[in-house]
Design brief:
Blueprint (H helix, E strand, L loop, with lengths): L1 H12 L4 H6 L7 E9 L10 E4 L5 E3 L5 E6 L4 E5 L6 E4 L5 E6 L9 E4 L2 E4 L7 E3 L2 H6 L5 H5 L6 E4 L10 E4 L12 E4 L2 E2 L15 E7 L2 H5 L9 E6 L5 E16 L8 H14 L13 H9 L5 H5 L3 E13 L3 E13 L6 E16 L2 E13 L7 H6 L36 E16 L10 E20 L9 E24 L2 E24 L16 E24 L3 E12 L8 E12 L13 E15 L11 E8 L2 E8 L2 E2 L7 E14 L4 E13 L2 E5 L8 E5 L2 E17 L3 E18 L20 E4 L2 E4 L2 H5 L15 E3 L14 E5 L4 E11 L2 E11 L2 E3 L1 H4 L41 E3 L2 E12 L12 E15 L25 E11 L1
Parallel strand pairs: 1-7, 13-16, 32-36
Antiparallel strand pairs: 1-4, 2-3, 2-5, 5-6, 8-9, 10-15, 11-12, 13-14, 15-16, 17-18, 17-49, 18-19, 19-20, 20-21, 21-22, 22-23, 23-24, 24-25, 25-26, 26-27, 27-28, 28-29, 29-33, 30-31, 33-34, 34-37, 35-36, 37-38, 38-43, 39-42, 40-41, 43-44, 44-47, 45-46, 47-48, 48-49
Membrane topology: Multi-pass membrane protein
Keywords: Cell outer membrane, Membrane, Signal, Transmembrane, Transmembrane beta strand, Transport
Pfam family, one: Plug
Length: 1003
């Protein structure tokens, strides 16, 4: 009767769970069993815990409030497990209600962490591998995962120099190892490299990320050879689990505004500055004053003022919606995710949209074979004309925005023609599109399932293909006063292939454990670009849509091909989980080098001692939960050179000869070098991991030293050789530093808990050698014994005062000085201020950084507060530097003062054009402490949504970049501030403050 009823029910519903009901007939009538799971150490409920009926494929996971529902019978056994917790079996009681507490692993030593080409138990890791806290990944609403990492991992510097929507921050691990090459770490997603494919971290939806590990020390990174010299970031995305399909929705929406507005002077104050500027420079004002230009005079006379910053700014709006579906059986699992991000920036025209779709699948067709995919498609849209913050900040409040016909003026401060209308670019409609189509898959063959003597032997094939097309279309016409018209179409694309053959073998015998990993891999990337430009159009109607209509047309194209081959072998050995050893060697060959030195070999060695497993530690087991000492040494490489740079190249040009157009080949001034070798970095790391007092206090401390040598630098050549320069292996750089991570559980109660995480890092970077002759490079600011990236300038000691000039104090010191000029130190005492009086004043990279996270939990509420600090950085301040030099032609920030005979400032110079004749850069302390993130979340009671079929719901509010403590004068000490006339000076963008409200729902 029961079987007949089940079959009848299955046919009537026609649902997939009929398979489940049939499977459960051996257990009798399946009922809905409900339960809750808590952490034994904190008393808080735990989400994403797997609950499985023993002996079947029926499983589920706990929701956001730690509750679950599963089909089972009283007397069945439930297996409850999760990474980081001891597995537990529970018999379903007659009442059908299950309440379980899980005990965390001691210091999570048995937790698996991702390392290069595999995973290891945390207790067996010999290198410096940092894991990003999962709370940072799941509870901080960010558009880019690197924003969640910022300040959360020691000696991983994430700099958000640009807050432009869609821009990715820069990342640096343990300092800069190369003089000229990029310092960005190597990025690997699900085993397939994202770096060097033209892909971006922005291509990876943060909602899809399961874990992030960062390899920092020589042993950990050497496994990636030439790719590991700047550290390696391993990202693992979410995958399906067996059990009932789960639909999850994560979404948030909020507003953004400028974190700090660099307010300009008022109209009244500007008039005073105009008057002082005219007086001290013997100049005149327009029509007798009080302003300098015609348009200013018209508006001043009519009482019209404009807030130009307000004109280009708006309230930013951000929203993100993510829907994922996951589930499967024991032999087929899937994870599908779709994401939509829409961000309207705080400056007009700065818009960003991202559409992404991911599918991760895992299939096990036989006992010995597993296959799967990790593929995604993402589209980026940054269309639109953008207002200029640089131009807006320069505008006088009396400047004229519109012409009489309602069109935007070209020069709002006419007759001043240096500064254009900041709103003009918003009349344009450029297209900025980029896509990434990545199709990645794997096949895993377990030989032990085929032939028992081969137990432990596995082969894995990783294959990846990435297609990244980029399209940029632009047109300038009458709206920006280009009456001839100019259109340009730029199309580029790259296609990247990755193929990895990985062989692994694992064997345990007695107290001994050994595993081997072997790799043979190849990569290639083909890139091409075509640019078509047209000038002088009959009208603006079609914009770039018909470049053939232009009177002048120009087409150019270029392409290149990169290829590499790699072999790697790694052996891990451990004895009794006490003594651990790792040896790795990798050989890389890349097409950027010539045949004489195409390959590089990169070995490493590491050892670790789990001291807490020693018998002599038994007396302190109640105090010491974990104590491990690590040491590693290794060599990694860096290509640090573009494609074809080792060759002597020629350029094609067109010349007229005998009335005909002929093609000529011209030899480039850079000579090839067949013997050019890889840059290399040797490194030594030692560290201690610890856990005390039932892991109420835990953490790690690492000390390291790296020496990079054989730098790839351009060396000047005598002109008689016929060449101007050549790439040579010259220069040495060292980095020494310390990483510290400290975790504390300050209060652990049933209803309340408080935990703290502190990360601290200090790095000292130093140039050891430049060209091998003991000489320095003044032009590039490369000084032996000093860091890469320094401020080399005069030393300011004050401002020259009138009484000093009258008394002749400047004689034999600075003959060119006048009252109000910058007073500079005569360091060598020769009675002159010249280049010999410059010195290294500081470094542009911070000397140390730290982050402090406090997490408070009260019942269903969680409050997370994160503060980070960056100290010891020095930057030239362009706001101060250009204030007086361009005072007569622009507005200035209200924070900047100026010297006058009445205001005898010893800090601010006068408005004279001669007050800074030596070009002092006004370096300023760029240190800051920032209240980076505050997030308050609430796990809603389960019974609230039962009728809606919602298994869990979390609501949260979050604020980002809430407040900054700094002495920096400018928009922000971290944000770039590009001066007029420099490349991309139209891309200045302020730091933004964000407030969002979000929901996470599980169905």
């Amino acid at each position: 009767m029961l079987t007949h009823y089940c079959n009848k029910y299955a046919k009537s519903t026609l649902l997939l769970n009929s398979l489940f009901l049939i499977a459960m007939t051996s257990y009798g009538q399946a009922t809905s069993i409900k339960g809750n799971i808590r952490d034994a150490s904190t008393g808080k409920t735990i989400s994403n815990i797997t609950v499985k009926v023993k002996g079947s494929s029926v499983s589920t996971q706990t929701n956001t409030v730690g509750s679950f529902t599963i089909q089972a019978n009283p007397g069945n056994t439930l297996i409850i497990s999760s990474v980081g917790y001891q597995e537990k079996e529970v018999i379903v009681p007659q009442g059908g209600i299950v309440d379980v507490t899980l005990v965390p692993f001691e210091n999570v030593l048995d937790e698996l962490v991702v390392v290069g080409y595999g995973t290891q138990k945390r207790s067996d890791v010999t290198g410096s591998v940092a894991s990003v806290p999962k709370d940072r990944l799941s509870k901080i609403p960010v558009t880019n995962v690197m924003q969640a990492i910022q300040g959360a991992v020691s000696n991983v510097t994430v700099s958000q120099a640009s807050s432009i929507p869609g821009d990715a921050p820069s990342v640096q691990v343990r300092g800069k190892n190369s003089i000229t090459a990029t310092s960005e770490p190597y990025l690997v997603v699900d085993g397939i490299p994202l770096s060097r494919t033209d892909g971006s971290i922005n291509d990876i939806n943060p909602n899809d990320i399961e874990s992030v590990e960062i390899l920092k020390d020589p042993s950990a990174v050497a496994i990636y050879g030439v790719n590991g010299s700047n550290g390696v970031i391993l990202i693992t995305t979410k995958r399906g689990t067996s059990g009932t399909p789960r639909i999850r929705y994560s979404g948030y929406g909020g507003v953004e505004n400028v974190a700090h507005i660099l307010k300009p002077v008022s109209g009244e104050e500007l008039l005073k500055r105009y008057a002082e500027y005219a007086r001290i420079n013997n100049g005149t004002l327009y029509n007798g004053g009080p302003v300098r230009n015609q348009f200013e005079f018209d508006n001043y006379t009519n009482g019209v003022t404009t807030d130009w910053l307000d004109a280009v700014m708006q309230t930013g709006v951000i929203q993100n919606h993510n829907v994922s579906l996951s589930g499967g059986s024991e032999n087929a699992k899937y994870f599908v995710s779709g994401d939509y991000l829409d961000q309207k920036g705080v400056l007009l025209g700065y818009n960003y949209k991202r559409y992404s779709f991911r599918t991760n699948t895992d299939f096990k067709p036989t006992k010995y074979l597993s296959v799967g995919t990790s593929s995604f498609i993402v589209a980026h849209n940054k269309d639109g004309g953008r207002a200029s913050l640089l131009q807006a900040a320069a505008m006088s409040p009396y400047a004229k925005m519109y012409n009489d016909d309602g069109s935007l003026t070209q020069f709002p401060m006419y007759s001043e023609q240096l500064w254009t209308n900041p709103l003009l670019p918003t009349t344009l409609n450029p297209e900025r599109r980029q896509f990434n189509i990545s199709l990645n898959g794997y096949a895993d063959l377990n030989f032990g399932e085929l032939y028992k003597p081969l137990v432990g032997l596995k082969y894995k094939l990783n294959a990846g293909y990435s297609y990244v097309p980029v399209r940029n279309n632009e047109y300038e016409g009458e709206s920006v006063y280009n009456f001839a018209g100019m259109g340009r179409i730029t199309n580029s694309e790259s296609q990247s292939y990755t193929l990895e053959n990985i062989l692994t073998y694992t064997k345990d015998f007695g107290k001994h454990h050994i595993d081997f990993t072997g790799l043979y891999a190849s990569k290639s990337k083909y890139w091409q670009q075509a640019i078509a430009t047209g000038e002088v159009f009959p009208n603006d109607a079609l914009e770039w849509g018909n470049l053939g209509a232009a009177t002048t047309q120009k087409v150019s194209s270029q392409a290149d091909l990169y290829r590499s081959i790699s072999q790697m072998g790694r052996i891990n050995y451990s004895y009794d989980s006490r003594y651990l050893f790792t040896a790795t060697v990798r050989r890389d060959g890349a097409s950027v080098f010539s045949k004489n030195s195409k390959y590089g070999v990169f070995p490493s060695f590491a050892a670790a001692w789990n001291i807490h497993n020693e018998s002599f530690m038994s007396g302190v087991k109640d105090v010491v939960d974990n104590l491990k000492w690590r040491i590693s040494y290794g060599i990694s490489g860096n290509e640090a050179i573009g494609i074809y740079q080792t060759l002597s190249l020629m350029d094609a040009s067109t010349i007229a000869l005998n009335g005909l157009s002929n093609t000529a080949l011209n030899i480039r001034t850079r000579m090839g070098n067949d013997n050019l070798e890889w840059e290399k970095t040797k490194g030594l790391n030692t560290g201690i991991d610890f856990g005390l007092f039932k892991n109420r206090l835990s953490g790690s401390i690492d000390m390291y030293k790296t020496n990079s040598y054989d730098m790839l630098l351009l060396q000047r050549l005598p002109r008689l050789t016929g060449f101007a320069e050549v790439f040579s292996n010259l220069g040495k750089v060292s980095n020494t530093g310390i990483d510290l991570t400290l975790n504390t559980k300050n209060i652990v109660k049933n209803d309340f808990n408080w935990s703290t995480t502190l990360v601290y890092s200090r790095n000292k970077n130093k140039i050891v050698e430049v060209y091998g002759d003991g000489k320095e490079d003044l032009g590039n600011r490369w000084f032996i014994g000093h860091p890469l990236g320094v401020i080399y300038d005069f030393t300011k000691v004050g401002i020259w005062q009138e009484d000093e000039i009258k008394a002749g104090a400047n004689k034999g010191w600075d003959e060119r000085a006048e009252a109000g000029s910058v007073k500079l130190a005569d360091l060598n005492g020769d009675g002159l201020i010249n280049e010999d009086d410059r010195s290294v004043l500081g470094q542009t990279a911070p000397k140390w950084t730290a982050g402090l996270t406090n997490t408070f939990g009260y019942k269903a509420f969680t409050l997370n507060v994160f503060i980070n600090t960056v100290q010891g950085a020095l930057r030239n301040n362009p706001q101060i530097g250009s204030a007086a030099d361009e005072m007569g032609r622009k507005s200035t920030p209200a924070e900047l003062g100026y010297w006058t005979p009445e205001n005898k400032s010893n800090e601010w110079r006068s408005l004279s054009n001669r007050s800074n004749v030596y070009g002092y850069g006004f370096p300023s302390n760029a240190s800051f402490t920032r209240l980076k993130d505050v997030t308050l979340s609430y796990n809603m009671p389960q019974h609230t949504f039962n009728k809606l079929g919602i298994n869990g719901a979390t609501i949260y509010v979050s604020g980002r970049n809430l407040y900054t403590w700094t002495n920096w004068i400018g928009w922000d000490p971290e944000a770039r501030d590009i001066t007029r006339g420099s490349a991309n000076d139209n891309l200045n963008y302020p730091m933004v403050r964000t407030y969002v409200l979000g929901f996470n729902l599980t169905f």
